[in-house]
Amino acid sequence: MFEATRRRVLGALGAGGAATVAGCSGDSAPTAGTVNTGGTSAAFSGETDVDRIAADPTDLPDPIDRDEPKRHEVTLETVEHTAEIEDGVTFAGQVPGPMIRVRQGDTVSLTLENADGNKMQHNVDLHAVYGTGGGAVATTAAPGEANAMEFQAWYPGAYIYHCAVPNLDYHISAGMFGMILVEPKDGLPEVDHELYFGQHELYTDTETGEEGHHGFDFDAMAREDPTYVLLNGEKYAYSAAKHGPAEVEKGDTVRVFMVDGGPNLSSNFHPIGNVWARAYRDGGLPEEGPFDEYADRNIQTMKVPPGSCMTGEMETPVPERIKLVDHALSRVTRKGLLAEVDVLGGEEKDVYDPEPEGPGEGPIYGDGEGE
Ligand SMILES: [Cu+2]
């Protein structure tokens, strides 16, 4: 079922059917992994060891409802996987890594665990941290080890966290990034839905969609010429054809958190058929509201640099399928980036009428006389 679905997606784009990108081994010179085609993966040494690498964008912590600071114990476990489409070094087995959600003034005790079977050292740099390397030096851990640091969340906003070992661009391209959201003390305005996505690009030594074995390609990464540009680590991960779409009811307000891991490409994040009614550039938030006055209004496309985030809110006055894209559109048509949100409900023809009365009925079509 899963294989058939994936093949349909790839077929629809004429991409030719790629599938599994295997994990790399060795720190300084990762060896070639493999890419297998559906149905034949067992024949290759690069057999996947997870069914799915794409994080569920609806799986994020609840908004904070608290007036007092709190101390959090957070453990990020790093695991190295062989996974479909996405090459596999990930935080907690998903791309992006899990969202960490705290309140400004909270204290976070963060432990970076490097799983025993891993081959590389890892760490974490959180952009929400005042401190050397955002915690990267203190948390660096070899396979089978764990290291901790503690910080107070001093300033509010949505921030990236990412692996920051010497080959950090490779580790991020392999999926080692996520978001920490520091809510202002009074919290964020209430919305009906929140979604969480992560964009990044993957560099392999084989053409996009080509069957066979893919290895990581450091030269392609240096040229910033990716094989895939992805939302949530898999080709079209949260589209209707794969793990999605997200579904909301007409009239709901939808808040989207997006982190751009890069390592190199900025995103041009646009909701097709909608607009960022309120947009927080780079995820930045003021200490206090009213947030409506702080936010940019009615932004069509948000620039999100690598190593940054954005928060955008959509209104949903009509039923439709919203496509979340990087508006550098070859990344959508040819390199795998797409998520979809379905707005369910009855038509609102005053706002949008997909089948208006035909030509000749209204003044913009002429009145049929004098032509
Ligand atoms: Cu790493």
Structure description:
The chain is mainly β. It has a domain at 193-215 and 224-344: Sandwich (Immunoglobulin-like). Helix content is 9%, strand content 33%. The protein contains six helices and 21 strands. It has a six-stranded mixed sheet with strand order 12-11-14-19-16-17. It has a five-stranded mixed sheet with strand order 13-21-20-15-18, with no helix packed on it. A four-stranded mixed sheet has the order 4-2-6-8, with no helix packed on it. The longest helix is centred in the N-terminal third of the chain and has 12 residues, at 2-13. The termini are far apart. Bound molecules: copper (II) ion (CU). Copper (II) ion binds at residues 89, 120, 122, 163, 165, 171, 176.
Topology record:
Elements: H1 2-13, E1 20-21, E2 71-80, E3 83-84, E4 89-91, E5 97-103, E6 107-114, E7 125-126, H2 136-139, E8 146-152, E9 157-162, H3 168-173, E10 177-183, E11 193-202, H4 218-222, E12 228-231, E13 246-249, E14 253-262, E15 267-272, E16 276-280, H5 291-294, E17 296-299, E18 302-304, E19 308-315, E20 320-326, H6 330-333, E21 339-344
Parallel strand pairs: 2-6, 5-10, 11-14, 13-21
Antiparallel strand pairs: 1-3, 2-4, 6-8, 7-9, 9-10, 11-12, 14-19, 15-18, 15-20, 16-17, 16-19, 20-21
The protein binds copper (II) ion.
